[in-house]
Specification:
- The structure is a homodimer.
- In chain A, α1 packs antiparallel against α5 and α2 packs across α5.
- Chain A is mainly α.
- The longest helix of chain A is centred in the N-terminal third of the chain and has 28 residues.
- In chain A, about 65% of the residues lie in helices and about 5% in strands.
- The radius of gyration of chain A is 19 Å and the shape is globular.
- Chain A contains seven helices and three strands, in the order ααβααββααα.
- Chains A and B meet through α1, α2, α5, α6 and α7 of A and α1, α2, α5, α6 and α7 of B.
- The structure holds a DNA duplex.
DNA sequence: CTTGGAAAGTCAACAAGGCTGACATATAAT
DNA sequence: ATTATATGTCAGCCTTGTTGACTTTCCAAG
């Protein structure tokens, strides 16, 4: 409705402060919804959002190293280590010493870990699926385009390459 | 590119688990970018993201009550109070006793508060503007449609009505 | 073969910002 | 008068982030 500019050359109607504020608040409220379902599940166990993130990215790139995970998640190794330790102790993640470089630890989900991953991502995907279906393919395409343009250039690398970072 | 389904009735190509995973990670990485700039500014003062949120919504709905802010932010009053107290002490927010109902406190930004708000939202808007410009009006429309579909119904209320919640 | 440095783990201390529970106060509503 | 509401506050807890210091392991370059 707003996407036909009055003047010819530059279409600026979607770049007004009001439109930008709308976008900012949309991100804020949507992110709340985005994390709400997994958070509810995690709250019942001794885990939090940080555990979910670790599990997600280990599942996505099995055999990834701690350093890779660090860069992807953007936290300190001490912070990640605390989370990782409990997940390993609880038997959700397996840490294998590297064969080529034995300093490295390669991370894998155990059967139990995969089970929790499924449970969490099923909940998250259900909401994403509902939103995608409601919005339609065109909107989904735009959604991804804008989000990608909002990322930091380095994070963008993780967004694309992650399967090769193992 | 992916938005033409093979079969006629239901277009499901953008609802595959892989597409949903992409959407999930896009949210994760984009939110990092979204908060990065204000976070850098806040880190230099004694403030955090919670202060930013309070300032943002007080600026957006001047005179809003504590209870309204509570519902919008989705935190406990103890948590909000800690943040609000420092902002009032530091002279960024003014708390006026209600005229009709003297139990209520109406919140306003002071000149100094408006100054910080500008600084923070300028940084955040700059990134949002760059992303919007890069992605184009069509994408922006889709972006907002999907985000709105991702919100919880109640949060949706806050997204729309907030100017009337004062 | 020694040594420098990278990768990983660990310990300690701290801070932000969530949470619950309990309680106080002022005011409104019944 | 009593009850309900809005707010503030104290105390204590948890998760998850931080920094800094230190150790162990081990690859690789000299």
């Amino acid at each position: 409705m707003d996407d036909t500019a009055g003047r010819g050359g530059e279409n600026l109607l979607f770049l007004t402060d009001e439109q930008l504020r709308k976008g900012i608040e949309a991100m804020f409220f949507a992110y709340r919804g985005f994390t709400a379902d997994p958070d509810r599940i995690l709250a019942q166990m001794a885990y939090g959002r940080a555990h979910h993130r670790a599990i997600h990215f280990v599942n996505r790139a099995p055999g990834t190293t701690v350093n890779n995970l660090l860069a992807t998640l953007g936290v300190t190794k001490q912070s990640l280590n605390r989370v990782l330790r409990t997940l390993i102790e609880d038997g959700l993640i397996e840490s294998r010493v590297g064969t080529r470089d034995k300093r490295e630890r390669h991370l894998f989900l155990t059967d139990e870990g995969r089970e929790l991953e499924q449970k969490l991502s099923d909940a998250q995907r259900a909401r994403m699926r509902a939103a995608f279906r409601k919005a339609g393919p065109e909107a989904v395409s735009g959604f991804r385009t804008v989000l990608e343009a909002m990322m930091d250039p380095e994070l963008l690398r993780h967004f694309h390459n992650d399967r090769s970072t193992m």
